[in-house]
Amino acid sequence: MSLLSVEDLRVYFHTRNGIIRAVDGVSFELDKGQTLGIVGESGSGKSVTAYSLLGLLPMPPARIESGRALFDGIDLLHAPETTLRTLRGNRIAIIFQDPMTSLNPYMTIGAQLIEPLRIHMGMSRGAAMKRAIEALREVGITEPQRRMGCYPHEFSGGMRQRVMIAMGLATEPDILIADEPTTALDVTIEAQILELIRKLQESHGIAMIYISHDLGIVAGIADEVLVMQNGVVVERGSKTAVFHRPQHPYTRKLIDSIPHGAKPVDPARDAMPGQSDFLRMDDVHITYPVPSQSLFDLRRHEFSAVDGVSLQLAKGEILGLVGESGSGKSTLARGIVRLVDLKAGRIRMEEILLSELSGRQLNATRPEFQMIFQDPYASLNPRLTVQDCLAEALQRRGELDRKELQAEILALLGDVELLPEHLRKYPHEFSGGQRQRIAIARALALKPKLMIADEPVSALDVTVQAQILELLLELNRKYRMSMIFISHDLGVIRYIADRTAVLYQGRLVECGPTEQIFNHPEHPYTQKLLSAVRASRLLEGAGTD
Amino acid sequence: MNKEPADSTLSTGPDPARSSASLWKDAWRRLSRNRLGMLGLCVISVMVLLSLFTPWIAPYSYSAQDLDLGATAPSAAHWLGTDTFGRDLLTLILYGSRVSLAVGFLATAVALTIGVIWGTVSGYVGGRTDAVLMRTVDILYALPFTIFIILLMVMFGRNMLLLFMAIGAVEWLTMARIVRGQVLGIRRQEYIEAVIIMGLPRWLIMFRHVLPNVLGVIIIYTTLTIPNVILLESFLSFLGLGIQPPQSSWGLLISYGVETMEEYPWLLFFPAATLSLTLFSLNFLGDGLRDALDPRAATD
Fold first, then answer.
1. Which residues between 179 and 198 in chain B have a beta carbon less than 8 angstroms from any beta carbon of chain A?
2. Among B18, B156, B249, B278, whose CB has the most other CB atoms within 10 angstroms?
3. How far apart are the C-alpha atoms of B286 and B22, rounded to whole Å?
């Protein structure tokens, strides 16, 4: 008999706008020591499936309509809360996506680790301490004894996720549910955490449900894969079968949407080598003030976010900027568009010295360089309709009469493939991908010569991500607009960028044609970055052949 | 969610035949669908109309006393009873509404205007400007209110205009602080950075992009300020700055009612009930306005 067997699970959300079938007839079985991967885009019901097993869904609006989930003779879906409480964190543990918010900032790491041990296992303080220290050592945290007394803010994201894993594993659970445990982490950290999870699972013989939007990662770690779409399992099979011989069109689309392969070289651009310095950055330094540690420490402390970066960009070229969090890539972008001031160095675009502009002159030049932000949920004013938003941007270029304005707006909508009936709507009425299209249209309205895209697709689902990348490439060809494309996702960079620059701790470590960087990385950091990506996921799927 | 190839499916499907696009028109459309909000608006409007036409509709003159009658319970001749001087309570409440509503709305408007502008500029511009503006607020906060009022009286004498000024002068401080706090949060939002990059002038960003997103808090605080101000007036009148009998205001009537509560409870009940009704209506209207001005809170 299997450890956990779920049959015909249906979870509906009863909202004011009607019933949403979040999970609609999902069945699976999980054996001891096995890993089940659940893949799907946002809203596919993958997390709801897992949460319903632990009684963690908000009810109402959620309601379990039917189904059984047998675990050790107990039906998890209909068990009373008291029974679930003894199972949660004890025999079934969960690791959440965001290690930044899943630890209590006011409790020491030690206190948070000991709590479940004392409650669930009835351990004495001393024994719990010992077990917790052991668990921390197991997840690779050095000096575990001393770290027990630390608070979460003293830990980095990767270390916090290790603590979460230690917490999940300390009680020796039968099942571990991992809900996108590496999504918020850098690739090199991600590779370490995945390796750790795999090793611990093997040595403890724990069954795992691994939830992710990233098919590559799931295919790397799971034995069996469920592909979910709109609450339904559309495909189920061993990882090799799902990844290399996908049966369902949606699975195929998911695999095809993962950016892979190299960008074709544009012969027209190579023919014009003389234009290589459309944008020129010379020895750019950007610092942030750091609050001093004590009241009597009157020196000004500064943190150097960008430390002497020099880069060039040709007209019509797309430069990829890669780096992990804290590498200074976003700060550099904000420096170029003058949201932050440079500490030293110069930025010149054609004949204009961007870094020297100020006041009225700066405002007059701003339309020449525009930016697309990462989070399309935050980058649109919630109180302006699409019409008002685009009209405002267009009016910035000069007064237009009603007719001209409307014609320009419709042209913009066409460029980003939105429909005229979208004009009267507010941002919250759109999906993430559509919002990003609106944001792109707003930036385009100013006819910029330089577009800076700061992680424009990392908040989007893979299939939407592919559409937005396609759109950006299309616009780049159409308007011969130079672009700086920032991303932590190497696959995306390889797909879109002509040249790639790698940043590490505020310094430029390597820069060159994208294919050269990917095939023959010279700097050890670039090599480490690339091998981390290759280690944690299957990159070459069925889509490549 | 359904992600179609063209990505054209909407997360929600509102009325496609929507005719207006501006925030204010949309807001009015949404408000008119909010029953409690409309009820609040109606009650407030009726009160304002009644206070405007008081001299024509009040059953008695506000100065008409009948000392022999004294305090009587509600009756056919005096619907809400009379006070200890034999004055008709309904008449007093009606005349009182003129003072109270005027003070409530005007003083709040003064506080609102100064506070919102002060807070927005301070929060948005930041740096040295912020420091100067906020320290000014701190200093004014530190002035003892009673002494400030007495100083004003000594210097200018009794005056209705002074009343608005005095109340406005204290109420805007809190408003400025609240607005500044909100603006600080909004200023960091990406949609503000996006319009900065667009090169829009500062004042346009402040009043078109920042302020509308602070409106919810401003409205809530305003609806809390109005009843506050109405009661503050009675305190100032007690100090001698506001109005004096035989003129009346709700604040005066209530404080008088409290004194005689044990013998003549209706003298407290009716003025207090009127004030409460106003307060409830304002809160309902405020809630309705906040929801109406937030496109995300669409009830349809």
1. 189-191, 193-198
2. B249
3. 20
